[in-house]
Amino acid sequence: SQHSRADSLRLASLSLLAFAAEAACPCGTTAAKMSGIMEYNGAAVIAMAGKDCVAIASDKRYGIRNQTMGCQMKKVFQMNDKVLVGLTGLATDQQTLEQKFRFRSNMYRLREERDMNPKAFANMVSSLLYESRFGPYFCEPVVAGLLDDNTPFLSGMDLLGAQVITDDFMVAGDCTEALYGLCETLYTPQMGPDALFETLAQCLLSGVDRDCLAGWGGVVHILTPEGLTTKHLKGRMD
């Protein structure tokens, strides 16, 4: 069938990636090889909570290890008026998961006659990832959105769907150590949309400058009760 053929092709591609990781690091552990697959294309995502608003940002680079192939890659997707999701990890799995998330979100809308709130969406993402735990998608999603009372909601998870929910900021990607340090330094609670954008932009641009696998510009999405605003950032192109 079409699904079994697609699954066979996906398993074959993952086998090739695992072989490439083993060739690059023949004496490495399983964790090291999996880390190599997670960093194969490069990504950086930050989400931050403000006062009745939330923002999520990502870099634009698409690469194959250290070789840059493009600088307009989309890594943050809007699922509905109140939910955004950022994806880091293997680019092919990012595209697959984005389609699956959108399908399940649309089916929920048809069945329930309402949109998923961010908490329900995060639980759906966690369940979907855990379903494939024996042949996981090599992605670490970050969910950002506004609840019914416009309270910010942030959730991140690993490739098996283990959730972490926070009320300040969430980072994912290759340069998490640098991003964490900048966020802890610059973040303050209850920021408005403009201050949130400035803080998030500075954290992203400074963080990706410390990592050769992410960068080449960025994009910031600010979600408020009035709607979504998207701003593009110019970064170092080297």
Automatic annotation (TrEMBL):
<dbReference type="InterPro" id="IPR016050">
    <property type="entry name" value="Proteasome_bsu_CS"/>
</dbReference>
<protein>
    <recommendedName>
        <fullName>Proteasome subunit beta</fullName>
    </recommendedName>
</protein>
<comment type="function">
    <text>Component of the proteasome, a multicatalytic proteinase complex which is characterized by its ability to cleave peptides with Arg, Phe, Tyr, Leu, and Glu adjacent to the leaving group at neutral or slightly basic pH. The proteasome has an ATP-dependent proteolytic activity.</text>
</comment>
<dbReference type="Pfam" id="PF00227">
    <property type="entry name" value="Proteasome"/>
</dbReference>
<keyword id="KW-0647">Proteasome</keyword>
<dbReference type="InterPro" id="IPR023333">
    <property type="entry name" value="Proteasome_suB-type"/>
</dbReference>
<dbReference type="GO" id="GO:0005737">
    <property type="term" value="C:cytoplasm"/>
</dbReference>
<comment type="subunit">
    <text>Component of the proteasome complex.</text>
</comment>
<dbReference type="GO" id="GO:0019774">
    <property type="term" value="C:proteasome core complex, beta-subunit complex"/>
</dbReference>
<dbReference type="GO" id="GO:0005634">
    <property type="term" value="C:nucleus"/>
</dbReference>
<keyword id="KW-0732">Signal</keyword>
<keyword id="KW-0963">Cytoplasm</keyword>
<comment type="similarity">
    <text>Belongs to the peptidase T1B family.</text>
</comment>
<dbReference type="GO" id="GO:0043161">
    <property type="term" value="P:proteasome-mediated ubiquitin-dependent protein catabolic process"/>
</dbReference>
<dbReference type="InterPro" id="IPR029055">
    <property type="entry name" value="Ntn_hydrolases_N"/>
</dbReference>
<feature type="signal peptide">
    <location>
        <begin position="1"/>
        <end position="23"/>
    </location>
</feature>
<dbReference type="InterPro" id="IPR033811">
    <property type="entry name" value="Proteasome_beta_3"/>
</dbReference>
<dbReference type="InterPro" id="IPR001353">
    <property type="entry name" value="Proteasome_sua/b"/>
</dbReference>
<keyword id="KW-0539">Nucleus</keyword>
